[in-house]
Amino acid sequence: MRMYVTVVFRHMDASDALRNYATEKTERIRKYLIEPIEAHWVLSVEKFRHIADVTIVANGITIRGEDQTEDLYSAIDMVMDKIEKQVRKHKERIKNHKVAGGAKPLSAKLNVLSYEDAGEATEPMVITTESYFIKPMSVDEAVMQIDLLNNDFMVFTNSASHNINVLYRRKDGNYGLIDAGQR
Q1: Strand ordering across the sheet containing 153-158
Q2: Cβ neighbours, 10 Å, residue 176
């Protein structure tokens, strides 16, 4: 069984103790994922914030988590707790969800972010831009992914109509679907 773990240090000296700790914590998710598993950690210090950022690739999914605290060990613990919860939830949904037509495994990017606001801005501004893979999938698969990612929306290519669709979570707990098909 293979798991590849890399640890990069930014704005701090490399530490074998932190490298080994991150590697040990990554082992917790091995039982939930099909190998090979690749994990890439970026541990950094910015002023008083200690940031643990991890990207894990396995089972055709990419899982990304980040957490910030005043201690790198606790940041590693917190981000792995969140990722383990998401991966466990994903595995349960896969078991309970029957994919029609033997479709390929879903590809998704999980973002688990947690940090305090740096302050209040006077005007709204674009803080970050993220790229997502828009994979063909059914609406049922998109619902499963939006729940797995715990997001409010998902953009995907509808495998039946080949149109770009946006699935969003409504305040009442149901879902809305926007079909950007051409007329």
Answers
A1: 136-137, 153-158, 164-169, 175-179
A2: 10
- 35, 60 Cβ separation under 8 angstroms: no
Domain 1-116 is in which class? alpha beta
- Give the amino acid at 176: G
Note whether 135 and 157 are within 8 A (CB).
yes
> What value does the mean pLDDT take over residues 49-70?
86
CB 55 within 8 Å of CB 63: yes
What's the rounded Cα separation, in Å, for the pair 108 and 55?
A: 12
pTM, two decimal places: 0.55
Domain boundaries, the chain: 1-116, 125-183
| pLDDT, tens digit (0-9, with 9 covering 90-100), for 146-159 | 877 777 888 888 88
Q: Are the C-beta atoms of 43 and 72 separated by less than 8 Å? A: yes
Look at domain 125-183 and name its CATH class. Answer: alpha beta
